């Protein structure tokens, strides 16, 4: 297994640790710890692709595992946010539905010997999702510091404001998720139309 693939596997391995700390409010600074783990996992997504392209280490495993790792990472984060009451299930449903549709289309294309490559809309979608997750965790960490009396802040006002900022970031990423999904389907409709 080459280095890019190891980084992809590491990204998947980091997900349970991210979930553990995010859902353990009894651990001080749990939002910060989960934010750092998620940020590190997100960086491996950038790094594995860069190394694979630069040193011609692109493999079939990487083509399969890299987007899968991204999906696991984002869906895990959104599912935790739903459990914590930081968002509603609609955003999670939009993301999961889009990923199922695109993955199904890629499988049909693959069975016909075609590869459906990522496009700029798909990359923008992933970046917006990662940014939304990081923003929400950072804002929640600031609130956590307020609860710990490390920061003197107006908790009620900031909680409402941060909730609006977090929801806005998630809905922007959900919009990009839908747009990128529609573009994938339109660009590759031949595989759906000719599927038997």
* Structural class determined from secondary elements: mainly alpha
Rg over alpha carbons: 18 Å
Residue stretches low in confidence (pLDDT < 50, at least 5 long) are: none
The helical percent reads over 70%
Name of the level-1 CATH class: Mainly Alpha
Integer count of domains: 1
CATH topology: the name is Four Helix Bundle (Hemerythrin (Met), subunit A)
Q: How many DSSP E strands? A: 0
What series of H and E elements makes up the topology?
A: HHHHHHH
Instruction: Note the beta-strand portion.
Output: under 5%
For the sheet with most strands, the description reads: none
Fourth CATH level, the homologous superfamily:
CDP-alcohol phosphotransferase transmembrane (TM) domain
CATH architecture: Up-down Bundle
* Number of continuous helical runs: 7
């Amino acid at each position: 297994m080459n280095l890019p693939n190891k980084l992809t596997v590491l990204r998947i391995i980091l997900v349970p640790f991210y979930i553990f700390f995010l859902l353990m409010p009894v651990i001080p600074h749990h939002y910060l710890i989960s934010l750092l783990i998620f940020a590190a996992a997100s960086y491996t997504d950038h790094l594995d692709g860069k190394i694979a392209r630069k040193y011609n280490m692109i493999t079939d495993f990487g083509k399969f595992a890299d987007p899968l790792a991204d999906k696991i990472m984002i869906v895990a984060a959104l599912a935790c946010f739903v459990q914590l009451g930081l968002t509603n299930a609609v955003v999670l449903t939009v993301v999961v539905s889009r990923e199922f549709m695109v993955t199904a289309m890629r499988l049909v294309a693959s069975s016909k010997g075609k590869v459906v490559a990522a496009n700029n809309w798909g990359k923008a979608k992933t970046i917006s999702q990662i940014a939304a997750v990081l923003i929400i965790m950072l804002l929640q960490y600031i609130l956590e510091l307020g609860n710990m009396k490390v920061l003197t802040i107006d908790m009620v006002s900031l909680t409402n404001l941060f909730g609006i900022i977090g929801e806005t970031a998630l809905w922007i990423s959900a919009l990009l998720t839908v747009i990128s999904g529609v573009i994938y389907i339109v660009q590759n409709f031949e595989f759906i139309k000719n599927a038997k």
